[in-house]
Specification:
The chain is an alpha+beta fold. It has helices spanning 20-39, 52-67, 116-130, 145-153; strands at 8-12, 71-78, 81-90, 99-107, 135-141, 157-168, 171-181. β4 (99-107), α3 and β5 form a beta-alpha-beta unit.
Length: 184
């Protein structure tokens, strides 16, 4: 990664006191990360790179959930540059409210291998535990071996798989379901 060997640090992306200008800068940098990764074929749920308004709306929703105690947004920085982000959201159904889904963890290609993904995921796990989440779930595309390995090393276990469920053009991938049970 260019710009020196700055250590990756994780910040709460929904912490109070953030200036509107800071939010816009984060949204623009996040959109650039998502767009770059999706363009390279990353398994983030988009076929085409998401637009700036789409990411701004997504992060606005995640920040609001975090402020309400129904989610968490974590940002990874190297120096003053956003290099990754991730979030979880509590399930909306009343019968599922004790649980949450880790929906996205994304690290810029230039920062992969620096431990940002592990730091982000660990911070998200910690925030879910602190929020009283009982079970944290996630799903990943079956060919995303690095992410699945990371999740296993952090205590997630696979609880199901839908063969050839994810369609990217003519290609098909398994959808892998994982969980981390804090009740155990």
């Amino acid at each position: 990664m260019s710009g020196g060997g700055d250590a990756v640090r994780i910040l709460d992306g929904a912490a109070g006191g953030a200036l509107d200008d800071d939010t816009v800068l984060v949204d623009v940098a996040a959109q650039a990360i998502f767009a770059e990764l999706v363009s390279g074929g990353a398994a983030l749920g988009w076929v085409d790179p998401p637009s700036k308004p789409e990411i701004a709306a997504l992060l606005t929703r995640v920040r609001a959930a975090a402020v309400a105690g129904d989610g968490s947004l974590r940002l990874a920085y190297s120096g003053d540059r956003l290099v990754g982000l991730g979030y979880w959201l509590r399930y909306e159904r009343p019968t599922h409210r004790p649980h949450a889904d880790l929906e996205k963890v994304a690290v810029a290609a230039s920062a992969q291998g620096l431990g940002a993904g592990r730091l982000l995921t660990t911070a998200l796990i910690d925030s879910a535990r602190e929020a009283g989440i009982e079970v944290l779930t996630l799903d990943a595309r079956g060919d995303n071996a690095n992410a699945l390995h990371l999740y296993r090393t952090l205590g997630f276990r696979e609880y199901g798989r839908l063969p050839d469920f994810v369609a990217v053009g003519s290609r098909r991938y398994d959808k892998v379901f994982c969980m981390l049970d804090f009740r155990a």
